[in-house]
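Question (not urgent): is this output format expected?
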Amino acid sequence: MKCRNTITKVILLVLIIITLSISVFAGTKVGKISEIRGKVYLSVKGSDEKVKARIDASVTENTYVYTLSKSSCKIKFNNGDVITLKEKTKVFVNEYYRGSKKDTSINVALGSITAKIAHRGGNGAFNAYTPTAVAGVRGTEFDVTVGLDGSSQVAVNEGTVAVGNDTGEQEVSTGSKVQTDMGVDDQPVTQSSASAEDFRKQSDRKVYDDPEGTMTALKQRMEKQTANEDTLEQKVNTLQGVEITEDNMNDVDQKINDVGRELQQSSAVADSIAVLANEITEDKQLRKKKNELRTLASSINDINNSYQAVIDRMNMLFKAIDAAYEAKADEINRAYDSVDQNIDNAFDNVEKNTEIKDK
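Got this back:
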């Protein structure tokens, strides 16, 4: 009897684990894990649950994917994009917009990735957000590396990548590298010569040399990042009050895309800073400073959680605005199609009447 009860408990435990796995990742599937080496985990934003990734595991919206030491994986997106995560890397699949002009975006919070992006023409772009910049492309291959202090490097293997932040933007072509350093304010995009491995080591060394100074700088950057909350909210509210007509339709479409990307970028930067703060706190080389670092990390996480709640609320409103725009744009386009069809029918009738008269 005891053996049977034990078996029953084991079965129930397995069912609970399966249920948790399904509930954690119950979202819109945007891709899958196509290759794995070593230990790779998935978790969803807002959940403490994590699941060990397996081949063909679904990647959904708002999913963290992270690799441990001597581990790597590939994510194959539904649209053909392929992202390779190298060891000790953490990325977040941000909002994944579907539509004729929407973008795929990921947040590289720490580590190194290689992105092979499917050619899109004019149908949206791929954006890789880092703590210090955003890299946008429409079909190319490039590497992104983020060090422990938040500094970022972009190396283009093929094609052209636009790398920028509030200080400006640079077009980076095949064979070139650029970097952006972490600061309270955005730092300029500058040329880079280090390999991705050396760049990451240099970034880590800055943290090991002055961990408390790095954490204080990250906290200041977080506070600076969240200071634009009112501006973002005003932009979203302004969009909500716009009446869409055939004359302003394209202009509104552009503004919606711009605000959507700004929301994504702002959320990505704040989230990345929180990830970096937690990683620094847990770094084995800094265990003697753990208590001091944990206090700073806790403050950073509190600010991030509060800010992300605001961003989530704005995103809900933004999605409603986007859906309303799409519905109105479809209505206007259908009206155009109807007019075009009536004109075509009128021309056909004229041609037929002309032929009859000729006979």
